[in-house]
Design a protein that fits this description.
The chain has 113 residues and is α/β, with parallel strands linked by helices. The protein has one helix at 23-43; strands at 2-4, 7-9, 11-15, 49-50, 53-56, 80-82, 94-96, 107-110. The chain has one domain. It contains 1 helix and 8 strands. The protein is globular and about 40 Å long. It starts with a strand and ends with a strand. Residues 1-113 form the Calcium-activated chloride channel N-terminal domain.
């Protein structure tokens, strides 16, 4: 993730290939990041927002014209992962973190719900 000129870019959200194809998952991710960007903008006194968020669609899903090639982007390198529920957290979002408090997390985990 990059923060330049108060704009977050290179945010990668990836959907696990084991998640059943569902356009509502993609639509909900778009809503989540649009709302989060709006809230971030307000919270930072109209300065910072998400300028670019890319959603990596599994190659097992039906291809659509609006889907661009993934290039070198992978699920394992995503900042936000949409995956099956974790037995410990079920459908609650969490951040996987190896370091201590104040250290960057490895990725955020979301489920399709």
């Amino acid at each position: 993730i990059k923060l330049e000129n108060n704009e977050y870019t290179d945010v990668l959200v990836a959907i696990n290939k084991d998640i059943p194809e569902d356009q509502q998952v993609v639509d909900r991710l778009k809503e989540i990041f649009t709302e989060a960007s709006r809230d971030l903008y307000v919270a930072t006194n109209n300065r910072t927002f998400f300028k670019e968020v890319k959603i990596l669609i599994p190659n097992t899903w039906t291809k659509k014209p609006e889907y661009l090639p993934a290039g070198t982007k992978t699920f394992e390198r995503a900042n936000v992962r949409v995956d099956r529920p974790n037995p410990l957290y079920v459908d609650n979002p969490y951040v996987q973190q190896k370091g201590g408090c104040g250290e960057p997390g490895d990725y955020m985990h979301l489920t399709p719900k």
